[in-house]
TrEMBL record:
GO terms for cellular component: cytosol. PANTHER family: BLR4117 PROTEIN, DNA POLYMERASE III SUBUNIT EPSILON. Residues 30-203 form the Exonuclease domain. Pfam families: RNase_T. NCBIfam families: PRK09145.1 (NF006601). InterPro entries: Ribonucl_H (IPR013520), RNaseH-like_sf (IPR012337), RNaseH_sf (IPR036397). One of its GO terms (biological process) is DNA metabolic process. Gene3D superfamilies: Ribonuclease H-like superfamily/Ribonuclease H. GO terms for molecular function: 3'-5' exonuclease activity; nucleic acid binding. This is DNA polymerase-3 subunit epsilon.
Length: 204
């Protein structure tokens, strides 16, 4: 968090279009839960296949304002990848270009902080497209739900082992699991986990 705060002036300086200054303007108690499906787990190779995002306002998940985008990669998804997320070439061939999808995502997010489960990976993939488009990486504050859960469990028992598998978070927090590896479902699941954590720990 401290490094992110220190880097914000530099990122703002690198911004190419003043219209995107809104990305630096955090909005009260609103957040965006984010998830991406990609062609690889290697950031350098990964291309976007789909993006799911949903807004949170206070204690509500605004599913009516959710965003789901299919993205057309330069390299079609291969069989092992399709078996994970179910997105076939015929599905993504009708998708947006990565650049158009990312611009729509930026407009949707604005300055809202981002939530995610292992969010660092999704942000790293997105930044491959964001930096050339606006001149800087995603500047929003980022909240890692697995990190929030880790802190929550250690406060209960400082010497305990903390299982950070997604299924364990759902079980511990009593949050129902939606079908996984669908970008929007995963974003909604993270939003539910975050609100459950906030309710138990009193943090926001």
């Amino acid at each position: 968090m401290r490094l992110h705060t220190l880097m914000r002036p530099w990122h703002l300086h690198r911004l190419r279009d003043p219209a995107w200054r809104t990305l630096f303007e955090e909005r009260g108690d609103e957040y965006v839960s984010l998830d991406c499906e990609t062609t690889s787990l290697n950031v350098g190779e990964a291309e976007l296949l789909s993006i799911g995002a949903v807004k949170l306002r206070g204690n509500r998940i605004l599913t009516s304002e959710a965003l789901y985008l299919l993205v057309r990669p330069q390299t079609p998804p291969e069989k092992p990848n399709i078996e994970v997320h179910g997105l076939r070439r015929c599905d993504v061939d009708q998708g947006l270009s990565a650049e158009e999808a990312v611009l729509r995502l930026l407009d949707f997010i604005g300055g809202r902080p981002l939530l995610g489960y292992y969010l660092e990976y999704d942000v790293a993939v997105l930044d491959k497209y964001v930096k050339p488009l606006i001149g800087c990486p995603l500047p929003q504050r980022q909240i890692e739900v697995s990190g929030c859960y880790y802190d929550y469990k250690l406060r209960q028992n400082p010497n305990s082992y903390v299982d950070l598998r997604l299924a364990s978070l759902h079980a511990e927090l009593g949050v129902p699991q939606l079908p996984r590896h669908d970008a929007l479902n995963d974003a909604i699941s993270v939003a539910m986990l975050y609100l459950a954590l906030c309710q138990r720990s009193g943090r926001r």
